[in-house]
Design goal:
CATH architecture of the largest domain: 3-Layer(aba) Sandwich
Strand order of the largest sheet: 2-3-4-1-5
Structural class: alpha/beta
Helix content: 40-55%
Oligomer: single chain
Strand content: 5-15%
Number of strands: 5
CATH superfamily of the largest domain: P-loop containing nucleotide triphosphate hydrolases
Low-confidence stretches: 210-218
Shape: elongated
Length: 271
């Protein structure tokens, strides 16, 4: 499925629910940093509030990283019960992963018993950073990376598929060989990590029988085998390992040691 078609289907689904007053009160928009999750949040807000100038709308509130603190959460908990000027009050969390457990717990009661005229959109790269109690009260949409969604290099895709095949076969030699591939991709590791993350998430989404799949994996028979070979917990753990690797590489940890640790930690997941 092409990424633009995926985006359009999600948009149509959300716009239809908004126009029919059936929109949920809380969403998680998850995806890589170059995905269109922020654009979707903006477009949906414009549609609901019937304006092209959200900056002039008092019913629209963006929680930036600078504003992400317990005082802001307490303000939202109070402010959301004040009636909006238009149809809804909309609160966009720019990076929900910045919410500490204390902040999430303080926000939880509002998520559990929200006013009918409020919409919360939590934007993040990895929803696993949110508490289970928060995630369970939101509807999640995953937005694939713009770089890796459709135009992913064929050789890179084949490497990732080969890695997962070796993983389910517990072929340690094949997995170690993948380390050599990673050594040659150091300059493009951001794209590789994004592709690895997207592919793993797509396996998880396939397992959950979601209608929203990224790029061509929906037509790949291998993904059905992979989806049936892993448990939900294993796939979620692999996603966490990949995300942790991304953070370590961004912090300039030793490249080879970090990549080796990622592969060996993933191997441990399936033992």
């Amino acid at each position: 499925m092409e990424r633009n078609k995926l985006y359009k289907e999600i948009q149509d689904n959300l716009f239809y629910a908004a126009s029919n007053q059936t929109l949920s009160h809380a969403f998680i928009f998850e995806g890589s940093k170059d995905s269109k999750k922020e654009i979707m949040a903006t477009e949906l807000s414009k549609r609901i509030l019937d304006t092209e100038h959200l900056e002039n709308c008092s019913d629209y509130f963006v929680v930036t990283n600078e504003k992400m603190n317990i005082e802001t959460i307490r303000f939202i908990n109070r402010d959301c019960y004040i009636k909006p000027f238009k149809s809804k009050k909309i609160y966009i969390f720019e990076d929900a992963m910045k919410m500490t457990p204390v902040m999430q717990n303080a926000f939880l009661k509002t998520l559990e018993e929200p006013p009918s005229d409020v919409l919360f959109i939590l934007i993040c790269e990895n929803a696993r950073g949110l508490l289970d109690t928060v995630r369970s009260r939101c509807i999640s949409y995953y937005f694939p990376s713009e770089d890796t969604a459709l135009d992913i290099d064929k050789a890179l895709k084949e490497q990732i598929e080969s890695f997962f095949e070796n993983l389910i076969e517990k072929n340690e030699i094949g997995i170690i060989q993948y380390m050599e591939d990673l050594k040659n991709q150091k300059d493009d590791i951001d794209v590789v990590i994004d592709a690895f993350m997207d592919y793993t998430r797509d396996i998880l989404i396939t397992k959950e029988r979601s209608d929203y799949l990224s790029y061509c994996i929906a037509e790949n028979e291998l993904v059905d085998t992979l989806a049936s070979s892993f448990t939900h917990f294993q796939l979620l753990t692999i996603i966490d390992i990949i995300e942790d690797t991304r953070k370590k590489l961004s912090s300039r940890c030793n490249y080879n040691l970090t990549c080796e640790a990622m592969l060996f930690n993933i191997m441990e997941v399936i033992k």
